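DM from R.C. (forwarded with permission)

"hey, sorry to bug you on a friday — could you get me a structure for this? deadline for the figure draft is monday and I only need the backbone to look sensible"
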Amino acid sequence: MKYISEFRDESLVKGIIREIRELAVPMNIMEVCGGHTHVICRFGIRDLLPSEIRLIHGPGCPVCVMPAESFEHAHALADMEDVVVCCFGDVMRVPTQSGTLLSKARESGSVRMVYSPLDAIKLAQENPEITVVFLAIGFETTAPSTAMAVKRVRNMGLRNFRVLSTHFTVPEALRALVDDPAVRVDGFIAPGHVTTIIGLDAYRFLADDYKRPIAVSGFEPLDLLQSILLILKQQRAGKPIVENQYSRAVRSEGNTVALQAMNDVFEKTDTRWRGLGIIPGSGLKLNEDYAEYDASKQFDLASVPIQPEPPGCRCGDVLKGLISPPECALFSEVCTPDSPIGPCMVSPEGACAAHFRYRSLPGSDLDM
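My reply, with the result:
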């Protein structure tokens, strides 16, 4: 590839669309990644597809799948004396019964926005009188950076740095979705970024045990259209496999260095996802070798009261693919990016934010 325009070429788009229309059968195809959702909405990819093919959203937004208790724990830590919570910017804007972390950042400075865990480490170095807690979020894409940060802190001998891990693992969530009788998913567009870390083999069970076709996709319009075509070809042939459309970034074995760092620092644990409930083995917590850096072990968070979800918010149903964002009664009327009710309208990867941002575009943004 020399230019990004190569992945938006009109003649190639038309050719793939013709093939898709020839092979189309009724299918619900879930794009797992929030980045894919934004590309689909921005370029009007749904408008290019035949009516038999329905694209549905999945739990691929890391901020969106964080349960209410994770935010309440972060608020509780920020209210403690001599504790500063460091987190990414979109996490700060998620509303809870306790307000937002952004409001605490403005009121007391007990919450700081960071761009990476290295920023949190630097803050701990410069302020030995406080305990810095890094609110670690995300899937297997960001977990390696947290693992490397914890390793670095140990090597430095830094004693005032802790991690509150809310890392999730994608394959276990996909298993939970196909096991859920309320969810109908006939094929998956698997997340490219996550798969660069975990590799293709992590999804084999979907093809082998559940007979679901899978294509790991890149993030340009042609990537997604080609992935849909690959899924249709598998469905027509009756031979579901894991195909790698994103071969320019993804390898079968994944990123072995990143995986080793995760295995060194984390162990799997049962954890709660917004909308999906508790999924066995789908979370990552610091293992016993690194337990001294685990904020949940140093601070009493079990007694923190967990507030109910906002009335009327259907983020959980969006994350399971049961509804599209406009089907929520709050969408665009009460819940907007400037005044969000749920996290799906806050995060740049949220499905509600994508639908809101691109809701007025007339059809496809591709030159067809």
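R.C.: lifesaver. Residues 43 and 365 are 4 Å apart (CA to CA).
me: no worries. DSSP finds 16 helices and eleven strands in the chain.
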